Amino acid sequence: MKIIFAGGGTAGHINPALAIAGYVKEQEPDAQILYIGAKGGMEERLVPQAGFDFQSITISGFQRKPSFENLKKNLRTVAHLFTSTVESKKILQKFKPDICVGTGGYVSGPVIREAMKLHIPSVIHEQNAFPGVTNKALSKDADRVLLANADAEKYMAKHSRCILTGNPVRMAVIRADRIASRRKLGLDSRPLILSFGGSLGARRINEAVLDLITDTAKTDRFQHIHAYGKYGDWFPEKLKERGINLADHPNFDIRPYIDDMPD
User: Which of left, alpha, beta for 186 (phi over 0: left; psi -120 to 50: alpha)?
Assistant: First the structure.
């Protein structure tokens, strides 16, 4: 069996694809899996790190905020729509997949659209209650539309073949050993707080966690692992402004992204 996965932009699109791919390889060790992602996207790092073959296409998303700079970016995006279609078709014709799976993000658009034109069975998976633009557009012709939340169906194309599946979770997370994981992370008996606002870093979550850490630093009665995300690079500096030196608080593990979530 040959399967192509396409999705990217955020870990919320990438990790479900990796979870499905991992389960397939466990059930069918001889399955050939190829992941197609955007050149320069975080999938370029996460997918090979997970042990899967990866190919990139050049594509970008539209900028919705009006400005001259965004106009130029959008013109490049229009050009990328054509080139990414050609790139996707070449990869599909060379790999010859039995099925294609799109998990959202603009990179999945040209891949799944071309797969459907080539009559390759194609399914998409939507992780949110309010679907993204790409999945809404693809839902009309996809063989199946897999939903994590039933509310998403009303936003899909009329007569879409929707199935409520939930969000896939990597088996490494499900099978994680609590004691071994705490030992690996160097945790003691104090309660652990784990927080994150997605791979991009939700500002309100980061702000709330900043207040929480400011308070708990007074007693250090908690251990805390927090990932502030791509757009939360201001977080460590804000901690310093509040007089919190992370070197003095080994119970705080503050990082941009959590690569080892199963632990």
Answer: left
What are 162-209's pLDDT values in tens digits? 999 999 988 888 888 889 999 999 999 999 999 999 888 899 999 999
C-beta of residue 102 within 8 angstroms of C-beta of residue 108: yes
CA distance 113 to 102: 10
- Specify the length of the chain in residues: 263
- Distance (Å, whole) CA 48 – CA 41: 12
Q: Whole-prediction pTM value?
A: 0.82
The beta-carbon contacts of 203-211 under 8 Å, at least 24 apart in sequence, are 203/231, 203/232, 206/232, 206/235, 210/235, 210/238, 210/239, 210/242
Distance separating alpha carbons of residues 24 and 15, to the nearest angstrom: 14
The one-letter code for the residue type at 260 is D
User: Taking each helix axis from N to C terminus, what angle separates 68-95 and 108-117, rounded to the nearest 10 degrees?
Assistant: 40
Listed in order, the ranges of the chain carrying CATH 3.40.50.2000 are: 2-172
Give the integer Cα–Cα distance in Å for 115 and 132: 19
Specify the CATH class of 2-172 in words: alpha beta
How remote is the C-alpha of 118 from its chain's centroid? 27
